Amino acid sequence: MTKLSVNINKVATLRNARGGNVPDVVKVALDCEKFGAEGITVHPRPDERHITRADVYALRPLLKTEFNMEGYPSPDFIDLVLRVKPHQVTLVPDSPDQITSNSGWDTKTNFDFLSEVLDEFNNAGIRTSVFVSADIEMVEYAAKAGTDRVELYTEPYATEYIHNPEKAVLPFVEAAKVARSMGMGLNAGHDLSLVNLNFLYKNIPWMDEVSIGHALISDALYLGLEKTIHEYKNCLR
Q1: Annotated catalytic, 163?
Q2: Among 33, 50, 66, 70, the one annotated catalytic
């Protein structure tokens, strides 16, 4: 079964736009679990423009499903992860000022750096995932660096899906097969939606997890959070 992890960054963005605690990020996360999500994802950035360090500490003891923290492995991020000990940490190559993730790691060029960081997290008993493009060499070097999983960066799939679904999914299927052959788990995320998720799942049914935030929270404005989560879970069947 492919699990649905809800990225709640956009909920925190809305809260921070006004100040105060509306919407309540912790309550939304707990409601996502109650409505059927199997995990919660957060990306605490250095400027705390959405998820804050305080959010991370507040969420950890209350969540009953899987807690996934993603971010660039700066010293501050590494320290936060080791203190909080989420179930999974996903390493992304974002610079601090990026609006959102827009590429996977060059795992060959950054091999030594990633290996060192992954060793630290693995030794702490935290499952690791590395954000990569659907590039076989990048997947192979991620495996050599010692990650437990890779997360495929699916924005190119989502963009091409509108024009040619079969062409769009092909490199992701090939990358997913390589990941599986090398004994890694497989996640996917970025620009997945009710439009394109089921086709990806049908072609790569062995995915462990998809992490979805922007589209899911946007859909919830029209459908409501509970119905939206049910619709996304239906795409994973």
Answers
A1: no
A2: 70
